[in-house]
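Example (one chain per record):
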Amino acid sequence: MTISVYVPAVLSLLLAAISRLVVGRIAPTRAVVFVVAAMLCAAATTWGLVLLAATLLGDTALVTEEANERGVQLQDPVPQLIGVTAVILLISGAVRVVRVLRARRATTRELRAVCSSCGTGELAVVALAAPHAFAVPGRPGRILVTRGLLSVLDGDERRVVLAHERAHLQSRHHWLRAATEVCAAVNPVLIPVREAVAFLVERSADEHAAAVTGSRELVARALATVALAGGADGVRVWPAALPFAGCGVSARVAALRADPPRPEALVPGSVLALGVATTIAAVQATIAFYQLVYWLWPT
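Predicted structure:
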């Protein structure tokens, strides 16, 4: 086994580190780049753990007898402790993934049930005093708002909220969030990437709302109003949802009051390159593993 089996874990650390630095320099609509890179990193690190765990098979009686019959002296390429650790990490990652998927499914079901109780149509208004708004995915997707939110916003600000949530539904942002949440569950090192994607999809919806309403200041004002009224606590109401006032409200308001973001071609390419590099390392590790067990194949 070569050192390439450990490279995906190192590159995942690097991706997590740069995600905090470049999240403010990448166009909000390019969140998918982080998602693809995270998926590649998660897949490569998981496969690396599988290869490390597979080295434990060399200690089984079947493999030992086969080696003795062929006169091959086994050499342990990976310390047994690392192999056992890989098994533990794989099991714990699978448990976390199940928990994430269950939480998302439960949240979606609850939100859809609330929308169903509010009649038909795109907009569903629920009688809650706390100011919240959510994009509820489905066929068709719906926008769930509380009476508390409607009471603190004027007509123009309500248009902002609707445009923001429509952007989430049209761009399928819930899929981007779900993908990175699963990646972070598989590889907790990628948690900063998950947070970066959560921030970018909110920024993308903010920019869409600004384009629809024609006023970045109006979007910033609506966001700040809801946050100050308590809407930033929406994540605690329905976990895994897409709340209007969530994921770095102050940074989003500051971005809306600054100049529109300028796309930087090198930043998305660099992020994606890290994901591709993990895939290459995983392929090299697979080749090394094949060469390691080649003698077991029938001749």
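Caption: Confidence is low (pLDDT under 50) at residues 60-64.
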